[in-house]
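Form 7-S
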Amino acid sequence: MAEPSPVRCAVIGTKNIAAQHIPVLQALPEAEVAALCDIDPEAVEETSRRFGVAQTFTSLEELEAWGEFDAVYVLVSVLAVAEVAERFIRAGIPTFLEKPPGLYSSDTERLAEAVRETGTTAMVGLNRRFYSCLQAGREALLDTGDVVSVTVHADEVGTTHWEGPKFPPEVAMRWAYANSIHALDLLRYLGGDVANVTSLVRRRGLPKPDSFSALLEYESGAVGRAISEHFGPKGTGHFYEARTQRAVLTSRSGLSSCVLEARGREPVEFGLTGLDRRLKPGFPGESRAFLRAVQAGEAVSFPAPTLDDAVRTMKMIDGITGAEEWAPKPTS
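Output:
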């Protein structure tokens, strides 16, 4: 049986994280980087030279008129992701979205509705789910029984995004969605869907709430704990621990490894493998999942986050941060 043709991908947004995605796409046989698009002519030209992609555009209209692509990677700024992604989802073009799929749950819900209406293949880039070490560790943990508790730290250096000029105030205000979502989503990856959230929110070092401590009740009956501190030094940073009755899986080295300790056994450490060792960890796995779904004309499947899946993570973070009360979406 012949191998399916590579998916011709148009990369929209050529700054920052694009420099991590493009090498992954160029390393995967399932992909071909067909074009680059950015409203900044200098940025798209520099990225074109750096990665050897000849076809470039400086507007979505030009890219759409050209049309010689099978899927898009939406890697634009946080505030623009939902608008750009919805345009291509509603056009029926398979769409990969960098996190967050929307800075607000309502944005993500709108995208999920667009997918339901059109049947377009779409996936959100929550790459921690695809860290090869975590996937192997999670499988080994589940071999010891059902998960009964999950603890996640999603700590950040708040002043970095709050005081600097890089991020708009709206993004800095909702940093738990803009960046901490990577770690907080692991609460659902490791523990499953959440039935209830009870949270304590405090303001410690920033002129906004920056301390979030939550107790989660999973639909399975398991318990989750979420801690996200955005003041002071980063400390542990992003960190997870998941337990069954017989074993515990704990992250190490900034998530680049994990250790399984089970009663009556020697500890087992899982490290990064394959392309994760030389490229951005998790990116090869998530792109492979998206590209293979595109080739098959199907929706992505677990652990790949669909838009509906991303809505559930966003709603969980709403419960953890209470941000809809203190940082609601501005009315137009």
